Amino acid sequence: MAEDDIRYLIQIVKKDLEIQERKKFLGNSPPMIVEIERQISEMDEELRESEEAIKRLGEERRHLEREVDAQRAKIIQKKIEQNAVKTTRELRALDTEIEYISRQVDVEEERIIAIFDKNDIKTRENDAITKKINDSKGKLLSDKNSLENTVKRYKEELEVLEDEKVRILPHISDRVRNLYIRILGVKGDSGVANLIGDICQGCYSRVPPQKGHEIRKNNRIQTCEVCGRILVYYPTDNLSLDKE
């Protein structure tokens, strides 16, 4: 009977809608996860660069400190040599060397002070970056974990829904089932559409009021004149009218 076919078609279209909802999510989720991973990677790179800059400043400071120590050792050595010189010319030459090395030490010590200041600024910046990244990264990781869990759940639900749909199809008469399968092959989402108001939910075209009135009776197979889907009616508040 047509009423029985329509009762099962209503079950089918509900399954189709749930299936499409999950397929859409599963299709959209991979790029969403990739985008989250990209943002996390950028944050990790920003933090790595900040820490690397601090490391380079530390290496430069230690290098200059070694240079200063070496230059001071030279000054001490030159002063020792002054005690052994016998001519004023040799003494002046050593004084010139000591003065030149001392100027180098002054320049390098100023650079060390500047590096300390820069390092202090960079360290504060790094602390701020670390806090910002930890806050943002935590949320992103939570979002990614939630997405991955939903993907897993939807895959499981999709298998159940498709199995349930397969179990419903044999209850539909051969003629109507073949019609549904043929339309599904063309449309890809469902061969059935609900009628809300006078609007086909498959293509969102308006159905003539009289035809809409007949469709809402759910007592014979009728199709949308625009998209060709089988039209049925059930309440949009998801209160099921069909009984097994």
Structure, briefly:
By secondary structure, the protein is mainly alpha-helical.
CATH topology of the largest domain: Helix Hairpins
Q: Numbering strands along the chain, what is their spatial order in the largest sheet?
A: 2-1-4-3
Amino-to-carboxy terminus distance? 15 Å
Shape: rod-shaped
Descriptive report:
With 244 residues, the protein is mainly alpha-helical. The protein has two domains: 129 residues, Orthogonal Bundle (Helix Hairpins); 60 residues, no CATH class. It is 75% helix and 5% strand. The chain is built from four helices and four strands; from the N terminus they run H-H-H-E-E-H-E-E. It has a four-stranded mixed β-sheet. Strand 1 and strand 2 form a beta hairpin. Helix 1 packs antiparallel against helix 2.
Short key terms for the protein model shown above:
about 240 residues; rod-shaped
